[in-house]
Amino acid sequence: MNEQPLHLTLYLSSPQPCSYLARRATQSLFADPQGIMDTQIYDQLVQQGFRRSGRLVYRPQCPECQQCHATRLPIVTFRPRRRHRRVLRTNRDLRIVPVPSTFHEEHFTLYGRYIRARHAGGSMVESSVREYMDFLVAEWCTTDFLEIRQDDQLLGVAVTDHLTDGLSAVYTFFDPDLPERSLGTWAILAQIERARELGRSWLYLGYWIRDCEKMRYKTGFRPIELYDGQDWHRFGVNETIEL
Question: What pLDDT score was predicted for residue 243?
């Protein structure tokens, strides 16, 4: 694919308290929300370590901390580890059902339960329908809501963007009362399989932060690549990226 050079207006956000590392400030570099954005531009930005939250396409740009690294999994060479195989066995009764990225009352109810359990006291707890949809979708991007179902029961939703070379895991929410199923891990494994079925090369998983316990699970998927601000590097037994 011949990529055209990007000519975008980028802005730097003001410092805010970091949600992941205590006593740290965070800033983001983001594309002009009023500027032109389409799937091709978004695709190129993702390959340069950017992510999407609603219509906002951003990348951490913290002057005193460089711990955030965008991650991606190579679909062809990924092999599930023992813990992943255990999760697959535990959830043999589940299936993925792709549905359009439109409002579904059943999804919204489950999202509310998940947010109240996982992010109690946060700003997302009282999200309106509009805030919920504005957070998950963008009109210029092809997005699937991948339902996780046991028979007819909805257990989770993995919001997944389509890219030229892969899929991007935007956000996943699931039944918080079923920790024994490890639904977050199962959702990633299901998205890997969907990317394989679609003939895509990568699953982009968002940011990994070395000192954040919540992010540790990402480097449990091997092989995985991390973006260092200039290029992608394999992270594994013999790391080729200094962290």
Answer: 43
